[in-house]
Amino acid sequence: MEIRHLRYFVAVAEELHFGRAAHRLHIQQPPLSRQIQDLESELGFPLFERSRRRVELTPAGTALLGRARQVFDALDVAVHDARSASEGESGRLVIGYPSSLAYSGLTELLRAFRTGFPSVELSLRELPPADQIDGLKAGRLDVGFVRTSLDDPTLVAELVRRESLMVVLPDDHRLAKRRSIPLEALAHEPFVMFPRARGPAFFDQLMALCSAAGFAPRIVQEAAQLDIVSMVAAGFGVSIMPSSMRNFRRPGLVFRAIVGAPQAELLIVWRHQNISPALHKFVDLVRVLGVDRRRGKRRSKA
What per-residue confidence (pLDDT) applies to 294? Predict the structure, then answer.
């Protein structure tokens, strides 16, 4: 049995007239009659009682009509869902992000996407850059936000924004009264940093900045980004963080500009072979809402 046989059957069952059903289906009446006869022969029982004056459904035909309508209703839903998925209006996206992004635009981005594409299911994973890259390559993530360099042909990276790096100090620190601080002023300070394994490229950028200022940071404590601010506020040491972390609003902290205004880059990354329409709708929205108008497509170097 083919879908067209069911479609022909439903038309005749609803019209109870072969001529009107043929007109509705835009075919000739004799071929329609043959198709219904073939269907009855395949099923092994009659669907219609035919006379010169009228056509009526048999009990078997009445039972089949109800189920056939359900089939076409389900088919319409399936086609609608498939069309929505093909246009990026439904589906599922798994998004990786660094903790700092939760305080600098992620909420607004997700709200805008959910407003535009309410049928797309979003699943969020707060992960360090290295884990995001692994997740993207393994297919566990669809898209990620990282501050790290890339040299992998399986991934595409695009610049979202640049933001200033800042010195983070306890609010009673001797340097807290300054509006900007040269990095060399931190040469003898204890540092609180994230482990290099969580973001090798970003960690190396910070170490290179300190090296250019003539010192190697004395790291006394390692922690995740959100824990760093608490440890700095508690007096464990100082740190260097993206300016977006100011939005965390942790009491006992001050953020001060670094002389020379070094910057960090935030990239959006996805797998080159991921053709999900929902993913590309998300990337398009990030392009629109990105705070840096100078953003553009780039493949980072190691």
Answer: 34
Domain regions of the chain by residue span: 3-86, 88-302
For residue 250, is pLDDT > 70?
A: yes
Averaged pLDDT, 188-209: 92
Burial tier of 105 (Cβ tally within 10 Å: 0-12, 13-18, 19+): buried
Two tokens at 257?
């500009």
Q: Using 50, 70 and 90 to split pLDDT, how confident is the model at 302?
A: very low
Q: Please tell me the CATH code under which domain 3-86 is placed.
A: 1.10.10.10
Query: What average pLDDT does this structure show over 202-214?
Result: 94
Closest CA to 167 of 155, 156, 179: 179
- 191 and 217 in contact (C-beta within 8 Å)? yes
Tokens at residue 282, please?
């998300």
CATH of 88-302, one of 3.40.50.720, 3.40.50.300, 3.40.190.290, 3.40.630.10: 3.40.190.290
- CATH fold match for the domains 3-86 and 88-302: no
Closest residue by Cα to residue 223 from 97, 99, 135: 99
Inter-CA distances, 94 with 15, 143, 225, 268, 283, Å? 49, 7, 22, 13, 13
Residue 168 has pLDDT above 90, yes or no: yes
In sequence order, what DSSP letters do the residues of 230-285 get, joined into one string?
HHHHTTS-BEEEEGGGGGG--TTEEEEEETT--EEEEEEEEETT---HHHHHHHHH
Identify the DSSP state of 135: H
